[in-house]
Amino acid sequence: MTTSLSHDATATDGWIRRFAESARATEGRLTSLDQQVGDGDFGTNLTAGAHAAVRRLDRIPADGTDPAAPLEAAATAFLDEVGGTSGPLFGLLLQSLAAAVAASGPTTAAYAEGVADGLAAIRRVGDAAPGDKTLVDALAPAAEALRGTSADTSVDQALADAAEAAWEGVRSTARLRARMGRSSYLGERAEGIPDPGAVGVGLLFASAQGVVSDLDAHLG
Question: Which among 23, 115, 151, 198 is placed 20 to 30 Å from 93, CA to CA?
Answer without folding.
Answer: 151
